[in-house]
Amino acid sequence: MGTTDLLPLWFGESDRVTPRAIREAAIASLAAGETFYSPNLGHPTLREDIAAYVSRLHGRVDGGRIAVTSSGVSALMLTLQSLVAPGDRVIVVTPVWPNLVEMPRILAAEVTCVPLRFGPRGWALDLDRLLESLEPGVRALLINSPNNPTGWTIRRDEQEALLSRCREIGAWIVADDVYERLFFRGPCAPSFLDIASESDRVVSCNSFSKAWCMTGWRVGWAVLPREVPADFAKLIEFNTSCVPQFVQRAASTALRDGEREVAFLVERIAANQRNVRRLLAGMPRIELGEPAACISSCACAACATAWSSADSWSRGAAWGLHPARPSAKRRQGFCAGVLRSKAIVWKRAFAGSGGSWKSPGRADFRAARARRRNSSAGRPR
């Protein structure tokens, strides 16, 4: 970032290196000469390890429904490639990690965003509005829960209502579950896998990146309905062919021996969140919700108050600063205060190039940072 006192907490990446046992498993695999292609759907050992892990959390899943992918994002993209055709209608719950909105758009789908609501108790799903959007002809519903960036987590009754509606209209549910273990109210967040049958049109996409600090390894998985894996293998062949064997050995070790590391990470994140919430609580015009989980930039649960429309995430209108029209100087002053406090800055929330009366933009932050640099010139470091 070039600014030593700005904390870039929006990347969804821990500052901890991958645990030693996981790294050593990869080293041993390389030493053993495991440098060749592996099956498209993943090594049978890892597929069974994932199935056992998922079964412990969500009920019986067998290895035949597992596809090992080159990251969680790859699992999501492969799923959408297998389901979505140009012109198909896709519903996405927002605000959300921007890739989840852009993936179906790249495939020429028609994307409708249904925003969460923010209130005194934090972020919540507008279930009635979402159910209304699930009309006959909708191809897929994309839900990221626990949610990046808000920490919102879907409730069981909401999952049941959505699954029932999607069954009625024949729509697919694509669940981005990569943060399910970074959950503060139990060992795992609620999942559609808890209530769906193996024949339901539900795909759960997951990753080793978050819970096991393996962002650079690029390995994930998808839990698929029973009839899907054969076609999924073809898509993997055409995209990445396979995940390297030594990476898969490391992933197996994470699943078998990594529970202590996961628990330690969740506790550390919770402690960090408490500290950030304490710092933000005294800042003007910031409202705090209580998230059920910790997701990258939402570790602090610093929630914007004005989502003016379904796609305001992409327009940078996340920060509801003031009912009146503040000047550029006031916007820049607010940004400077954020920088001084070392508060979390949401990268996507300031995606606009210039800012508006509803939200400060990059230009406001650049101006605030420039003033700080000028005012600190000549100070001892």
Tell me the total number of β-strands: 11
So, CATH architecture of the largest domain? Answer: 3-Layer(aba) Sandwich
Spatial order of the strands forming the largest sheet: 1-9-8-7-6-2-3
What is the number of independent domains?
2
Distance between the termini: 18 Å
Give Rg in angstroms.
22 Å
In brief, what are we looking at here?
The protein is α/β, with parallel strands linked by helices.
Walk me through what this model shows.
By secondary structure, the protein is α/β, with parallel strands linked by helices. The protein has 2 domains: 20-257, Aspartate Aminotransferase, domain 2, CATH 3.40.640; 261-375, no CATH class. 38% of the residues lie in helices and 13% in strands. The protein has 12 helices and 11 strands. It has helices at 20-31, 44-58, 72-83, 99-106, 127-133, 156-169, 229-239, 245-257, 259-280, 312-315, 328-341, 362-375; strands at residues 66-69, 89-94, 110-115, 117-119, 122-124, 138-144, 172-176, 202-207, 220-223, 287-288, 302-303. The strands form 3 sheets. The chain has a 7-stranded mixed beta sheet with strand order 1-9-8-7-6-2-3, with helices on both faces. Strands 4-5 form a two-stranded antiparallel ribbon. β6, α6 (156-169) and β7 (172-176) form a beta-alpha-beta unit. α2 packs parallel to α8 and α3 packs parallel to α4. The two termini are 18 Å apart. Residues 296-325, 341-362 and 376-381 have low confidence and may be disordered.
